[in-house]
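Q: Given only this backbone (386 positions), what sequence would you predict?
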């Protein structure tokens, strides 16, 4: 295990009756807030009305930035920064899924930056300061509610890139599983795959002596395997939604990665596909993950694949390569049972774009650490997944 410093400061309010506490929580940081949300869902589920009532009763004034789309755009970030500056807003309240939260985070950081916020994502500038961020989560998937990452799309450059800083961790997040009862089958499944993928990106690692991190990881994988199908069959099943929501936060708040190094190449590859084709993040991950696994399986990575196959999928096949391959097939089958497609061509990805995408994915250098991938490796994975 590597040395580390542990800090996960986001205060979590988990459950159905917690929202009443949001007024005093906001007031610790602000009297004027920017309310950021997506298209329609928060109004449909009655959350918008509830929150406006709380804000008014707590004498908190607010401006709204609405219509944040999945794969959130840098153009909305720029709009949000202008609103915050024009009205001296002091906290960003994100109400929605990962896209809304990521947009809120980029606005919070851009507020203190005198040039274009895209600089954070193109690695021209580092995030050093940000307005406080609060979250009301409505979709279990990204872990953005408890981490310091933001992923933003730029349609002009056809890029989707991440930026990270400890100052982007939300000060508080309200997690009410019943808010996710209305999430569609597609987004529920994509969310489960995203959670599962976050765990795999940290589980598949060559650092030795990380027994405790691996056991925590396996518990979250098993949670997805158990509750993903139940949430699809019974959207209002509270235990299923609750376990998935907490799994979302625990999978990517840092807990699994302290003391080791994550891989993240599947995420780098998927983000570029989403940038070009506006694909749902979890759908892209479901397609790519088994192909990435097949490509990186070799003598050096074999022990981890065998561990995964035996611990998570209870595979007792004696031959180690055969067991590893069975584990990969089980993973593919799990994603397919959730309704996810198997190939990139099924979601409209064209062969002619792959070379350019592989170039962009590796433009900051090779990706991955479990097995480092150069441009040609990435291209091979994309071609296999087509
Ligand atoms: O716009 P509305 O009407 O709100 O609809 C949304 C949206 O269409 C809908 N939705 C959300 N809550 C709902 C609901 N529908 C019904 N009932 C509810 N309660 O769901 C759709 C998808 O929302 P989105 O926020 O895009 O989904 P998700 O949470 O999966 O976020 C995906 C984004 O997060 C990024 C992804 O790349 C993608 O851009 N990620 C962020 C990470 C981070 N910050 O740590 C890490 C991840 O790996 C990921 O890259
Ligand atoms: Zn993800």
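A: Predicted residues:
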């Amino acid at each position: 295990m590597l040395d580390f410093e542990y800090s996960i400061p986001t205060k979590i309010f988990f459950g159905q009756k917690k929202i009443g506490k949001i007024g005093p929580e906001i007031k610790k940081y602000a009297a004027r807030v920017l309310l950021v949300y997506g298209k329609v869902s928060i109004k449909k589920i009655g959350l918008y009305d509830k929150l406006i009532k709380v804000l008014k009763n707590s004498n908190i004034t607010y401006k709204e930035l609405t219509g944040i789309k999945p794969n959130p755009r840098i153009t909305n970030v720029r709009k949000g920064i202008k609103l915050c500056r024009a009205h001296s807003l002091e906290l960003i309240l994100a109400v929605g899924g990962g896209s809304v939260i990521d947009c809120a985070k980029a606005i919070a950081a851009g507020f203190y930056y005198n040039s274009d916020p895209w600089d954070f994502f193109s690695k021209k500038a580092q995030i050093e300061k940000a307005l406080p961020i609060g979250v009301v989560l409505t979709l279990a998937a990204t872990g953005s509610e408890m981490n310091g990452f933001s992923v933003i799309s730029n349609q002009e450059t056809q890029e989707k890139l991440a930026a990270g800083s400890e100052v982007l961790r939300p000060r508080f997040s309200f997690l009410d599983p019943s808010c996710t009862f209305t999430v569609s089958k597609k987004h529920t499944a994509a969310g489960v795959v995203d959670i599962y993928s976050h765990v795999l990106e940290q589980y598949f690692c060559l650092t030795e002596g990380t027994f405790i991190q691996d056991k925590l990881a396996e518990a979250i994988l098993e949670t997805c395997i158990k509750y993903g199908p139940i949430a699809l069959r019974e959207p209002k099943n509270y235990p299923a939604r609750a376990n998935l929501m907490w799994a979302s936060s625990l999978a990517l708040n840092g807990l699994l990665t302290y003391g080791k190094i994550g891989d993240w190449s599947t995420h780098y590859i998927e983000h570029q596909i989403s940038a070009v084709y506006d694909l749902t993040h979890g759908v892209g991950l479901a397609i790519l993950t088994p192909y990435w696994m097949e490509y990186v399986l070799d003598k050096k990575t074999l022990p981890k694949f065998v561990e995964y196959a035996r611990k998570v999928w209870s595979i007792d096949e004696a031959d180690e390569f055969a067991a590893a391959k069975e584990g990969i097939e089980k993973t593919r089958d799990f994603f397919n049972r959730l309704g996810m497609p198997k190939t990139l061509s099924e979601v409209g990805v064209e062969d002619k774009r792959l070379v350019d995408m592989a170039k962009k994915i590796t433009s900051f250098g090779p990706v991955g650490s479990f097995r480092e991938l150069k441009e040609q490796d990435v291209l091979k994975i994309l071609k296999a997944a087509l």
